UniProtKB/TrEMBL annotation:
Location(s), subcellular: Cytoplasm
UniProt keyword Lipoprotein present: no
Gene3D superfamilies per UniProt: 1.10.1390.10, Glucose-6-phosphate isomerase like protein, domain 1
SUPFAM superfamilies given in the database record: SIS domain
GO process terms (BP): gluconeogenesis; glucose 6-phosphate metabolic process; glycolytic process
NCBIfam families: PRK00179.1
Organism taxonomic ancestry: Eukaryota, Viridiplantae, Streptophyta, Embryophyta, Tracheophyta
Family: Belongs to the GPI family.
Name of this protein: Glucose-6-phosphate isomerase
Length: 573
């Protein structure tokens, strides 16, 4: 799959570079006046409606981007991903998260073996196990039903499942399925997060799901040991097997920990952490909360987009178009950031799943690279800085910046039917209509702006004109979902997963490894050893630069009351 030619050396890339000057001569308020152009930049698929007419470009731009996709061998690279070739070359692995939501009769192979039957073997096991828990046929050590679940994991083992759970919490069908149950997540090794995750819970009615592929992730395993102690202190060590299960491939360590290996749910090395929400990583805790039948609808929504991505012509392919537009904005127009703005409170954890840096994220961990897939330094900008907040909250936070400060392309995500409609007699519009009024208005405000001439025509005082002028010409796109149920949540997840893949394929980088997170972990290990020596033997801090040594010393002095061999102390909330 590797190519010795960087994409920036191809003719289509150079043609787009030259084309930038033409686009800079235009303004979106003029481009939006061309109805045929706007019509050509709209697309419908499976209930979704995409409008990218407020991107800074025209039909010629899109044609040139499609030529760039051809030069990048995008179709071939997508095919290699779906056929199970080891496109993650630095880790010598297939990239087959699409197999996690494939139909039972599909064939998707890695190393010559159809992995779909193994996927469904795990899904069937999750279905059976979650039904036992939900029905009360599996009970805790004291005979009580397990109605509360704490999922322990970090990065992709946390952000993706949390996004889906938050999106479903207010869906009427999911509310009915999850009645009387709680699902919480514990990710941060900060003891405050431990305290919050178990506050108000009874160990007798709690099931802990430990998510770690290798069962060695430092933060996750410390949190798992903490909750094991919480259960053991209340119910005795023998209760662990009844109250803790695992999502892992390391059955030896699972058993050594005290969890029955029969209660371990597998996933595979061809599943990257940030793409793992459709594996047992997400499906198990979500099924325990909502039941597998509802979670299966989520998988089917993702599968719908998987098929679309692999088969639709590029000019009608939502993830491909979104990926190409990101490349256009980042590498040609020079806009390195992207705001993800869902006008739906249920999607409040969607942007963190896409954006979160330094942990596991779909976009910034995947495409935050500075070298090509062949290890050649990139002479162009790649990767995006993602951030976001649900509307209208974001409007009172950072919209000042996107309207009158830096140019930041925006993704507006709207929902036609609210999960929780509210109507008040005498109001001009419903609550959801009020929300969506802003969804429709903000993209036009960014595109058109407001000129000094308009302001003077409105008799705005001269000294305020510079402050009230909006330059406009700020790109955005709008994605409209028919509703926000489990199926739609699956669609949205898959669209953004594949969009990231498209960007990486075009830029010629490996979107599926994550070496950038390793250095900090290694250095943290050295600090951990130093803290242990200082606590247990009183050894002075050494082996670090002056700054780090000073900080560590200050920290140790401020915590001098911590005993060298402390007794177990658990949160008190």
């Amino acid at each position: 799959m590797a190519s010795s030619t960087l994409i920036c050396e191809t003719q289509p890339w150079k043609a787009l570079k030259a084309h930038v000057e033409d686009i800079k001569k235009t303004h979106l308020r003029d481009l939006m006046g061309d109805s045929e152009r706007c019509k050509s930049m709209m697309l419908e698929f499976d209930g979704l409606f995409l409008d990218y007419s407020r991107q800074c470009g025209n039909q010629d731009t899109m044609a040139k981007l499609l030529e760039l996709a051809e030069a990048a061998h995008l179709k071939e690279k997508i095919g290699k991903m779906y056929s199970g070739e080891h496109i993650n070359n630095t880790e010598d692995r297939s990239v087959l998260h699409v197999a996690l939501r494939a139909p039972r009769d599909a064939v998707m192979s890695s190393d010559g073996i159809n992995v779909v039957p193994e996927v469904w073997k795990v899904l069937d096991k999750i279905n059976e196990f979650s039904e036992k828990i939900r029905s009360g046929s599996w009970i805790g050590a004291t005979g009580k039903a397990l109605k509360d679940v704490v999922a322990v994991g970090i990065g992709g083992s946390f952000l993706g499942p949390l996004f889906v759970h938050t999106a479903l919490q207010t869906d009427s069908e999911a509310v009915a399925c999850g009645k009387g149950r709680q699902l919480r997540f514990l990710a941060n090794v900060d003891p405050v997060d431990v305290a919050k995750s178990i506050a108000g819970l009874n160990p007798e009615t709690t099931l802990v799901v430990v998510v770690s592929k290798t069962f060695t992730t430092a933060e996750t395993m410390l949190n798992a040991r903490t909750l094991r102690e919480w259960i053991s202190a209340a119910l005795g060590p023998q209760a662990v097997a009844k109250h803790m299960v695992a999502v892992s491939t390391n059955l030896a360590l699972v058993e050594q920990f005290g969890i029955d290996p029969n209660n371990a749910f597998a996933f595979w090395d061809w599943v990257g952490g940030r793409y793992s929400v459709c594996s047992a990583v997400g499906v198990l805790p979500l099924s325990l909360q909502y039941g597998f039948p509802l979670v299966e609808k989520f998988l089917k929504g993702a599968s719908s987009i998987d098929k679309h991505f692999n088969s639709a012509p590029f000019e009608k392919n939502i993830p491909v178009l979104l990926g190409l537009l990101s490349v256009w904005n980042v590498s040609f127009l020079g806009y390195p950031a992207r705001a993800i703005l869902p006008y739906c409170q249920a999607l409040e954890k969607f942007a963190p799943h896409i954006q979160q840096a330094c942990v596991n994220s779909v976009s910034m961990e995947s495409n935050g690279k500075g070298v090509s897939i062949d290890g050649v330094p990139l002479p162009f900008e790649a990767g995006e800085i993602d951030f976001g907040e649900p509307g209208t909250n974001g409007q009172h936070s950072f919209y000042q910046l996107i309207h009158q400060g830096r140019v930041i392309p925006c993704d507006f995500i709207g929902v036609v039917k609210s999960q929780q409609p509210v109507y008040l007699k005498g109001e001009v519009v419903s609550n959801h209509d009020e929300l969506m009024s802003n969804f429709f208005a903000q993209p036009d405000a960014l595109a058109y702006g407001k000129t000094a001439e308009q302001l003077l025509g409105e008799k705005v005082p001269q000294h305020l004109v510079p402050h009230k002028t909006f330059s406009g010409n700020r790109p955005s796109l709008s994605l409209l979902l028919p509703s926000l149920n489990a199926y739609n949540v699956g669609q949205l997840l898959a669209i953004y997963e594949h969009r990231v893949a498209v960007e990486g394929f075009v830029w010629g980088i490996n979107s599926f490894d994550q070496w950038g997170v390793e250095l900090g972990k290694s250095l943290a290990s050295q600090v951990r050893k130093q803290l242990n020596k200082a606590r247990t033997n009183g050894e002075p801090v050494e082996g670090f630069n002056y700054s780090t040594r000073t900080l560590l010393t200050k920290y140790l002095e401020g915590n001098s009351d911590v005993p060298s061999e402390p007794v177990t102390l658990l949160p008190k909330i």
